[in-house]
Amino acid sequence: MLCTCKSGFGHEQLELEVTLKLVFQMMGTTCPNAIVIDKSWIEFNSIKNVVIEDPHCWSTIYSIKTQNRCIILLCWFHVKKAWVEYLLPKVTPSNRDRCYRLMCQMMQCHEEEQFNEFYKHVVDQFKHMPGVVALLDRSWCGKACNWR
Fold it and tell me: Is the pTM of this model over 0.70?
C-alpha cells in the first residue's frame, strides 16, 4: 500500500480499511503472519481496525483471545532512515556511531524483558543528552509509545 502523510479530507484511512476488509475477505482463512509498514498512523490504524474485526487473525486459548496473525511491524529500512533523519542529529557527533549501533542491537531483542533491559542501558548511555532520551521514549521505545 502506498499512502500519503499529507492532510486532505481525511478519507484515506477509511479507504484503506474498506480495501483491507475486501482483501481479507478474498483471502478467506489465509492471513499473513505480519504486515510491514513505515511509520504511518493512517496505515497503522487502518490495519488495526480491520484486524480487530477479522476472526482469522485471532485464536482463543484458555479463554484468552490472542492475536496470532497480521502483527504490525515497522519496516527496518524506514526505522533506520528515521533514526538518521530525526534521532542522530540530536546526538553529539562523537556519539552518533555508538547510538546507531546500540539502536540496531536493541531492535534485534527477541523478548520484551531483554528489550527493556537493553533500553535501560541505552538510556544510561545517553542520559547526558536529555533530548535524545526524550525522543527515544516518546517516539520509539517508551512504554506508552504505540510504535514499541
Answer: yes
